[in-house]
Amino acid sequence: TGAQAVSYTTGVPPVVGAKMMFQGHWTGKGVVNVEQLPSKPFLDELAKQGLPWHVKEIKTADQKDLFAVRT
């Protein structure tokens, strides 16, 4: 895209959010938290725009190393 990674990952999600509003996927009046809106159309469009996402289930027993603080 010719853009720096940080500008792309910062700029694309708000544009996709605006697209969700204009296309009627996200509706409501007043202030709404993004967590209150349907996530699937947003995440699907993010993937189409080059920001794919994945869910990885992690067992509780395996989280200790993941969240360990190492200095």
Question: Explain this structure to me?
Answer:
The chain is mostly helical and 71 residues long. It has helices spanning 5-22, 39-48, 63-66. Helix 1 (5-22) crosses helix 2 (39-48).
Keywords:
71 residues; 3 helices; mainly alpha
Low-confidence segments, given as residue ranges, are none
Task: Please give the share of residues in helix.
Answer: 40-55%
In angstroms, what is the radius of gyration? 16 Å
* Terminus-to-terminus distance: 36 Å
Mean pLDDT: 88
SSE run: HHH
Structural class comes to mainly alpha
Main sheet characteristics:
none
* Percent of residues in beta strands: under 5%
Number of helix segments? 3
Q: What general form does the structure show?
A: extended
Number of beta-strand segments: 0
In brief:
With 71 residues, the chain is mainly alpha-helical. The chain has helices at residues 5-22, 39-48, 63-66. Helix 1 (5-22) crosses helix 2.
Per-chain topology:
Blueprint: H1 5-22, H2 39-48, H3 63-66
